[in-house]
Amino acid sequence: MVTPVNLLDFDVDGLVAWFATMGEKPFRARQVMRWMHREGCAEFSQMTDVAKSLRARLERDAVIAAPQPVRDSVSVDGTRKWLLDVGGRNAVEAVFIPETRRGTLCISSQAGCALDCSFCSTGKQGFNRNLSAGEIIGQLWLANRLLGAVSGGEAAGERIISNVVMMGMGEPLANFDNVVTALRVMLDDHAYGLSRRRVTVSTSGIVPAMDRLREVCPVALAVSLHAPNDALRDKLVPINQKYPLKALLAACNRYLEAAPRDFITFEYVMLDGVNDQDSHARELVAIAREVSCKFNLIPFNPFPNSGYQRSSPERIRRFSTILAEAGIVATTRKTRGDDVDAACGQLAGQVLDKTRRTAAGRPVIPVSEERR
Ligand code: SAH
Ligand code: SF4
Q1: Orientation of helix 176-187 relative to helix 207-216, angle to 10°
Q2: What is the pLDDT of residues 123-159, one digit of tens each?
Q3: Which of 122, 219, 269, when mutated, tests ligand 1's pocket best, judged by the most ligand atoms within 8 Å of its CB?
Q4: Cα of 24 to ligand 2 centre, how many Å?
Q5: Does ligand 1 have an atom closer than 6 angstroms to the CB of 110?
Q6: What is the distance, to the nearest Å, from the Cα of residue 78 to the centroid of all Cα atoms in its chain?
Q7: In angstroms, what CA-CA distances link 201 with 170, 222, 257, 325?
Q8: Is the CB of 29 under 6 A from ligand 2?
Q9: Could you please report the per-residue DSSP string of 223-271?
């Protein structure tokens, strides 16, 4: 039997090309794209304006398959988190954060991450594999369905998911092609029609991939800075040894030439006694003079054996004040969804039992235990 093609793996151009191999016209591909993504349709039989013969063919040769949720938790603050099974005992997470005038979905790009930032629980799990384009866009497809945001579930003109951030598990720019395909679906008017300003890729700073993203699909960019000098950043974000600050900041400036926003968001995790001193803030002021930017200070989210602690609220305020006095916009991220472990860097952390690594050294997720 031939493995069916997962239509969530395609952007519009990809689906048009696949339809062409079956002798089907481009408008048919766009029609199916709208059914899948705008209506959240999972069944070809429901695509009523698609010719019956094509529907029968799709039933035979294709599927619309998103990762399956194995846990669905809602925080007291309304943050909703899904643990999603992506097969092979791997799970990733997606988080929906409702706010007054927007709803943000945070999605994952890889199972695990190879970059091993010292304060990140995803990094501590090691790298398992890249998610397919269908598994990436499937998180948005699924969240829309589960939030009732499809088939008339949304009030007129109001989107339940208005923003998407690639700040879940994994380094999006290390899974470049699949991430770009998923980004194109997010932006496409036949699918989600999100504006480039409302889709954010967060990267630890893979310089050549930042340049490629600027060329092929410039969306809003967040860069995980976390340290104001190479000596410290080499330790916290090891990819800095390959692409040090000078190269990173130059790439940020090149990116801004094509970016939909006129600033880069610098993410900065606040680690007690490590990168949170006045002197660090003053070094950041010098960096901010080189690149148009805003800072997002993220109170460290602890996890077992991390070896780090969160900076105190007073320290974070003082740090933020130094930046503000130099005319730099710095917001401190609210810790949302703490009670369901949905905060940054905690995603899927707790379900991994590191004593149960496979022969290849990969952590395994006891999915059955998760269901309890
Ligand atoms: N790999 C990408 C995106 C995923 S992580 C990146 O590194 O940018 C999203 C953000 O959460 C990054 O800024 C990351 O550094 C931060 N983060 C990771 N672990 C964290 C933790 N324990 N506490 C707070 N923020 C963390
Ligand atoms: Fe990977 Fe980002 Fe975590 Fe670093 S912070 S290990 S790049 S997911």
Answers
A1: 30
A2: 998 999 999 999 999 999 999 999 987 655 565 556 8
A3: 269
A4: 42
A5: no
A6: 19
A7: 11, 6, 16, 28
A8: no
A9: EE---SSHHHHHHHSGGGGTS-HHHHHHHHHHHHTT-SSSSEEEEEEEB
Ligand 1 atom at shortest distance from the alpha carbon of 226:
15
Give me the residues of the chain with pLDDT under 50, please: 349-372
Ligand 2 binding pocket includes 117 (Cβ within 6 Å): yes
Q: Which atom of ligand 1 is nearest to the CA of 302?
A: 22
Q: Is 93 in the pocket of ligand 1 (CB under 6 A)?
A: no
pLDDT at residue number 361:
36
In the chain, % helix, strand, coil (3-state, to 5) comes to 40, 20, 45
Fold match flag (5-63 vs 68-371): no
Shortest-distance atom of ligand 1 to CA 299? 24
345 lines ligand 1 (CB under 6 A): yes
What's residue 365's pLDDT? 34
Residue-level pLDDT at 156: 52
16-26 burial, b at 16+ Cβ within 10 Å, e below that, comes to bebbeeeebee
Any idea which residues carry the catalytic annotation?
93, 344
| Residue 199 CA, ligand 1 centroid: distance in Å | 17
Tokens of 213: 């993203």
Mutate to test the pocket of ligand 1, among 167, 239, 341 (most ligand atoms within 8 A of CB): 167
> Residue 106 has what pLDDT?
96
Q: Determine the distance separating the centroid of ligand 1 and the alpha carbon of 120, expressed in angstroms.
A: 6
Is the CB of 266 inside a 6 Å radius of any atom of ligand 1?
no
Q: Domain 68-371, what fold?
A: TIM Barrel (3.20.20)
Buried b (16+ CB within 10 A) or exposed e, 175-201: bbebbbbbbbbbbbebbbebebebbbb
Q: Where are the domains of the chain?
A: 5-63, 68-371
Report the pLDDT value the prediction gives residue 370, as an integer from 0 to 100: 30
Convert the pLDDT of each residue in 354-370 to its tens digit: 333 333 333 333 333 33
Q: What is the pLDDT of residue 89?
A: 86
pTM value is: 0.92
CATH entry 1.10.150.530 includes domain 5-63: yes
